[in-house]
Amino acid sequence: MMRFTFRRAAALLGLGVTAVPLWSLAIPVTATPARAQATEVEGPALPYASTPDLRAATVARAVRDQRATNPIAAAETARELARHDYDSVFRGFLDGTPLRPDDAGDVLTAFIALQWMVANDATVEPSAAALRAIRTRFVAPMAERPPLSQPATRAAFAEQVKLRAVLHHAGWQAAKRLGVLPRFLAGLSNEFMPVATLRNLALTEDGLVPKDRAGRAAPKPPPVAESPPVPDARPAPSPAPSAPDAAGPPRHAANWDQVEGVYFRSTTGFGVGGLMTIDFEPLIFLRDGTYYEIADTALEDVDLAAERAARPKRFGRWSAKGAGFVLTDARGRANDYALGDGSFFRAFPAVANERVARAYRRLSGGGNTALGGDVAIAVESRYDFHADGSYGRGGSVGATNSGASTGVGTAIARRRAPEGGRYALDRHTLTLTAADGRTRRLFFAYGSQKDPPEIDREMIFVGDDVFSPAD
Q1: Burial group, residue 80, by CB count within 10 angstroms (0-12, 13-18, 19+)
Q2: 175: which of 28, 159, 184, 412 fits an S-S bond (Cβ 3.0–4.6 Å)?
Q3: Is the pLDDT of residue 36 over 50?
Q4: Can you tell me the distance from the alpha carbon of 116 to that of 39, in angstroms, rounded to the nearest whole number?
């Protein structure tokens, strides 16, 4: 899938890929062997139209961004991209695979697979099953969020990914020919997924899975029967009530009697500048075989019946056999997990009246600078817990627009109003009492590490947001 290269490809290495000056290198074009067309991938379709004007604008932006830091390389890049149609090159990557060049989800899948191949200097091409699994695992969860959810931004995003894939592949091949691959890899940015993360993954028929200590794909749990999908016949969603004031006793304390276990799983999203990130989300396993993707409110304050009606997508079904779990979401899509395999973990409760003496921070955001765009948004949230039972909370929001597209740059920043008061921890509940007496109960959990799992106080969940130490 990833064998096509073009002449003088190293001239393109300066386009946010590496700083190795290899502009005079010539790389011959190699043909991709013919293969039978595979069945199309499953999952939400994300079609878009690739037009000549859109491709020209994509190239112009890439060259313009490079010119700001390396004018000589930018001129060479412009000449090479005028001679070679990156769209045709990228389509050659996909020949014989189930991926479609006019589907943004498939384009992103190809780039993720390529990133893994480059990080591991792999020579074996991903199978159709592996590509389907990558799309399901990494791309499908982002389909309902910008930029993939909006046709206009989807097209621009996909074209930037296509061009970046062609340049990424060209740089890889050039570095190999010159014998400077370690230098090339060290100079790569952490767009989408860092090299270190990709090197800890193996590519199998199940997609990208964690390696064991010997560097092999960790064993897959025994197959389990697929759980029946959650019925679709539900009342129409209604607006969810605001978070309840927790001054009084919990309204649904009996919810915890229905809990089988508390876990968290990895998920993907977009971070600062549109960078693809790995995040985590907590799950409550209920004894009736359903699971609930809990949000901010502590479980004892959640009306589960009303929540199921208002937010059916937060519920699914779980089953367990042997060391594995099968989770089937509200749409009937099933995925299997093994505890501690890098994607699925046990969550730990706090001790009653436990005191914490450290600060935790979460950094999130959005934008499109990771793929050559103008906008970067950063959101920082912070909790400072103290051994005397007091806490402080703050954060900030910042956004920049380089003005590369409009000629007018902007920057804004705003700090969150500070908050403080008293806190209390009791198993999976964090109670915050502000200085004005207002009280809230939030879901809380610690992360886990090692096998068998042990509590990891370096990682906490407050609601469905994961925080790590700020120091």
Answers
A1: buried
A2: 184
A3: no
A4: 22
Contact 293, 438 (CB under 8 A): no
Strand 276-286 versus strand 344-346 pairing type: unpaired
Query: pLDDT per residue over 441-461, tens digit each?
Result: 999 999 988 778 889 898 999
Q: Which amino acid is at 161?
A: V
For position 7, what pLDDT does the model report? 32
Q: How far apart are CA 9 and CA 72, in angstroms?
A: 15
Which residues is 424 bridged to in the sheet?
431
Helices assigned H by DSSP within 311-447: none
Half-sphere exposure of 111 (CA within 13 A, CB side): 26
Helix and strand tally (H, E) in the chain? 9, 18
> What amino acid occupies position 98?
P
| Terminal Cα distance for the chain, rounded | 43
Given a contact cutoff of 8 angstroms between Cβ atoms, the answer to whether 113 and 2 are in contact is yes
41 band by pLDDT with thresholds 50, 70 and 90: low
Q: Tokens representing 166? A: 């062609």
**Whether the predicted pLDDT of 419 surpasses 80:** yes
- At 313, phi and psi to the nearest 5? -70, -15
Integer Rg of the chain from CA: 24
Query: Looking at residue 255, what DSSP letter applies?
Result: G
- Full-model pTM: 0.60
On average, the pLDDT of the chain sits at 78
Give the C-alpha separation, 381 to 467, whole Å. 9
